[in-house]
Amino acid sequence: MMQNIKLGILASHYGSNLQAILDACDLGEIQAEVSVVISNNSNSMALKRSNKKNIPGFHISNHTHPNFLLQDKEIKKILKKHKVNLVILAGYMKKLGPEVLKYFHKKIINIHPSLLPKYGGKGMYGANVHREVIKSNEKFTGISIHIVEEEYDSGPIIAQIKISIDKNDNVDSLNKKVSSIEHKFYVKTIQEIISGKINLNNL
Ligand code: GRF
Fold it and tell me: Does domain 6-112+144-154+182-202 have CATH number 3.40.50.170?
C-alpha cells in the first residue's frame, strides 16, 4: 500500500476523467488526494473542475512559457511543490519533457482509447482513433492504461480492457461505448496501483 498519495493530474480539455478521479477520491474509491491540476489550455473545463474543488490549478503552455524546456522545468517544479508522487495524464495532448520524465520515472500514467500498440501515436486521439479502428474492420477495440515515456502512447502497458465492435457500430457509437467504460477502468487501475496490487516498478 502506498501511503499519503498525492496525485497530480494533467488534462487539456473536457476533463471527464479528471472528474471521475476527483469523485473517486471523495468517495474513498481512490485512497489519495488530487493535490494539483495542470493544463496547457487556460480555458479548459479541466481547470474549471479543479477550481470548483479549490484544488490548485495551473496553466502552462507556449503562451506562459514559449520554450518547451522551460515548460518542462515549470511543470516539474509545480508537481514537486505539491508533493505529487503519482502523475496522471487524463486527456493531456502534449508530450512531457525530459525533466518531468526523469524525475517521475515509472510514476506517470496515461489512458488511451485503443488496444495499444495499435492505434496510438501522434494524431491518434479521440474520434481519430475510433475512425481508424472502424476503417480497419477490427472486431475489437479497447482501452489501454500505460506508463508514460517520451513518445506519444508508448511505454509499458499496465492494464487493458477489450471491447467488442458490432457490425452497426460507427465512430460515434464506439466513442460512447469506450468513454462509458473508461472512467471506471481508470479509477479501478489507479487504486490498484495505490493499494500495491499493481507495482509499476515491475513493468
Ligand atoms: C479520453 O478519451 C482519454 O482516453 C484520452 O483523452 C480523452 C480525455 O477525455 N487520453 P476527458 O478530457 O477526460 O473527458
Answer: yes
